[in-house]
Amino acid sequence: MGISPFDIAGKSAIVTGGAMGIGFGVVRRLVEAGANVLIADLNGELAALRMSELEGPGKAASIGIDVSAHDAGRTLVDECIANFGSVDILVNNAGIYPMSPMLDQSLEGWQRVIDINLTGLAFVSKAAAQQMVEQGNGGKIINIASIDALHPSMVGLAAYDSSKGGVLMFTRALALELGPHAITVNAIAPGGINTEGTAAPLQGSGMTAEEMDAMLEQFAAAIPLRRMGEPDDIANVTLFLASPASNYITGELIVVDGGRLLG
Question: Has 248 been annotated as catalytic?
Answer without folding.
Answer: no
